[in-house]
Amino acid sequence: MRHARTFRRDQRGASAAEFALVLPLALLLMFGLFDIGRYAWTLGQLEKSAQMGARYAVSTALVPSGLNTYETIGLTCPGGVLEAGDRICREALGAIRCTGSGSAASCTCARTPCPDLGTANAEAFGRIVARMRVATPMLSADNITVTYSGSGIGYAGDPAVDDNGDPLSDIAPLVTVEVHGVALRTLALFGGTVALPPVHSTLTLEDGDGAKAT
Questions:
Q1: What is the residue extent of each domain of the chain?
Q2: Its pTM surpasses 0.90
């Protein structure tokens, strides 16, 4: 009995036992703080990439090549039928969504009206992706969508051409570059991933001539 009472009073090793109980929670908290910091940092990278992509996309060749030959004279706007020199209304163009995979690109009409889209300019899309990867190397073409939509800027029958004499778009569309489908591997979830929200940036097309941005 005397030995049992002595054993119950013995406090040696109590600190080690308490430490062993607290350690997992402390590590989880520490890893969680690391993950929060990495989450914020990566989200900032994605936002910067979207901004860089939009800035590049508005000063380089259009991905939907058919937009350059879209005949805007004769289109119907709220103010009437467009004639040469009339300002093109926002409703004259719906939305064209362009996506990529590997070295390929494709464009679809996401909201009517849309012109005949022609063949997507995969090279132009690839240059946008390469520019965005400067800020976020983990990005691939699958993570990026470029959307062209009506802005109400541009003049019907604009005679502008590129350096090769090919027509440039009468419409100066809004160009939205979106980054999506990116996941962050975490420490707190033991290698599990957390999806980052999509981010986007929008600017108005400036020239649409691929020779102006390299």
A1: 14-212
A2: no
